[in-house]
Task: inverse folding
């Protein structure tokens, strides 16, 4: 038998053990646009009894649907939206005695579909105590903004943002690394004794999990503790160990696509993922500076504009 799924974590491990698992990467925006133009739109126009010469859905309109009305690695919901546009267009053509030629522009999407379904908050955080991580979800690559602050207290650690167990453990590992290297990072010995540390990942209603945010959490924490900002337009992914080693992660292609889409210029990634670089489309890799990392020392030197020096 053949079966499909969006994620693996919900499939019992005993069943996974009996399957040959083939992973299909998500589509690029340009690929989705091409699929819509050459296949989805003609099919929906035919199914709704429309004359192809009387309905035009422009490429910029399709891009608007992809970015603000869908959140998926494939094109299933994109086709549903195109179908909805065709239904309304068919009614307009009927009301105008089949003489109208309808061109659906980007500005017309709200008229046909209402307000945008998703607002991609892909602003790259640049302030002190913030870092931009990269996540791989069932919807494709996403930016993961991380914020760290502290207040007078007794060393309590607060983790918020609907983090899963693995991500909470990654945060704990990042905190332990910073605390154990306080002298090297030139932090006061009493910093963690007299303050409560709060780590938050915005969009608290969206579940988040996985180990690949460990390095980003560590960098945000160091940025806050040293009062130094991370370089602008930089994102990072990688799992951290207690000794500061950086381990490989999954979904580097999808994460790179998300970084490129959001205007990131530099991506720090684990050295162990160099084998995955060949999967990244040329138009994406050419627009990014990809820097491999083995240790947190390398990550900090790459991220802090020379502020950080190994002690």
Result:
């Amino acid at each position: 038998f053949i079966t499909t799924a969006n994620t693996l974590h919900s499939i019992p491990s005993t069943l996974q053990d009996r399957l040959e698992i083939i992973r299909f990467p998500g589509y690029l925006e340009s690929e989705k646009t091409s699929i819509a133009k050459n296949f989805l739109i003609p099919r929906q126009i035919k199914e709704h009894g429309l004359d192809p010469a009387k309905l035009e859905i422009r490429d910029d309109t399709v891009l608007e649907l992809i970015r603000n009305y869908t959140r998926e690695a494939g094109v299933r919901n994109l086709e549903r939206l195109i179908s909805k546009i065709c239904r309304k267009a068919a009614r307009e053509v009927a009301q105008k005695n089949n003489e109208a030629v309808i061109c659906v522009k980007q500005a017309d999407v709200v008229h046909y579909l209402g307000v945008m379904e998703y607002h991609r908050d892909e602003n790259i955080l640049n302030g002190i105590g913030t870092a931009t991580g990269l996540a791989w979800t069932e919807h494709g690559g996403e930016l993961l903004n991380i914020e760290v602050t502290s207040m007078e207290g007794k060393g309590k650690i607060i983790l918020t943002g609907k983090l899963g167990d693995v991500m909470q453990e990654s945060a704990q590992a990042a905190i332990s690394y910073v605390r154990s290297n306080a002298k090297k990072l030139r932090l006061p010995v009493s910093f963690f004794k007299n303050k409560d540390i709060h780590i938050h990942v915005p969009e608290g209603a969206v579940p988040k999990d996985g180990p690949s945010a460990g390095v980003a959490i560590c960098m945000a924490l160091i940025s806050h503790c040293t009062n130094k900002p991370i370089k602008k337009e930089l994102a990072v992914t990688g799992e951290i160990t207690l000794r500061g080693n950086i381990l490989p992660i999954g979904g580097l292609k999808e994460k790179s696509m998300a970084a490129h889409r959001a205007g990131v210029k530099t991506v720090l990634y684990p050295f162990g993922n160099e084998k995955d670089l060949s999967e990244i489309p040329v138009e994406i890799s050419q627009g990014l500076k990809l820097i491999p990392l083995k240790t947190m020392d390398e990550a900090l030197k790459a991220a802090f504009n020379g502020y950080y020096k190994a002690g």
Q: What stands out?
A: The two ends are 58 Å apart (CA to CA).
